[in-house]
Amino acid sequence: MAEPNPYQGGAGQWGPHNPPALPTAIPPSGYGYPNSAPGYGYPQQPPTPAYGFPQQQPAPGAPAGGNAPLLSIGDITVTADQIITPAGLLPLRGAVWNATDMSHTEEKIPAHAIVLAIIFFVFCLLGLFFLLMKEKRTTGYIQVTVTSAGRHHSTMLPAFGPQTFPQVMGQINYARSLSNM
Fold first, then answer.
1. How far is 85 from 74, CA to CA, in rounded Å?
2. Which residues contact residue 130 at a Cβ distance below 8 angstroms, ignoring those fewer than 6 apart?
3. How far, in Å, CA of 68 to CA of 177, rounded?
4. What is the distance between the alpha carbons of residues 75 and 168, in angstroms, rounded to a whole number?
5. What are the backbone angles phi and psi of residue 104, rounded to the nearest 5°?
6. Which of 29, 85, 80 minimizes the C-alpha distance to 54?
7. What does the pLDDT look like over 114-169, one tens digit per residue?
């Protein structure tokens, strides 16, 4: 702190009516100055790819959108020629796809229907119609696995309803058709 402030003008007299004087000498290069050595905030090299995704250069003569995602199932992404997982890249040709439905749907009479049936029981057994009310709830997961070139990856998808498994199977059938091309 023995060096004077290069931005302070004259005898340190500055304020709203007296702006500071510009420095007479160019400060040494460092953080924040132009043409300085790279530091925080300055990229030193091209950014590194994300976990498990090596940088890929398009093949000569390949279409520009060759690596565009065609399908995504959980954390598995399928492109025209490869399968991208968090563990790495798998070849698409010859991949084996499987899905296991580990969800279940239960149907029960909700508590408010039982209360309404008891309250309206006195009206000629009309309240018993409230016992016909049913509530369906689906819980569990759908496991999707892919195996290719001796490597294996599995992901779990939450089941939101009874229609979830047929939707996932539609995606897997599309992935299977891409794997057989």
1. 10
2. 113, 114, 116, 117, 120
3. 17
4. 13
5. -145, 150
6. 85
7. 888 888 887 777 788 888 899 999 999 999 999 998 999 999 999 999 999 999 99
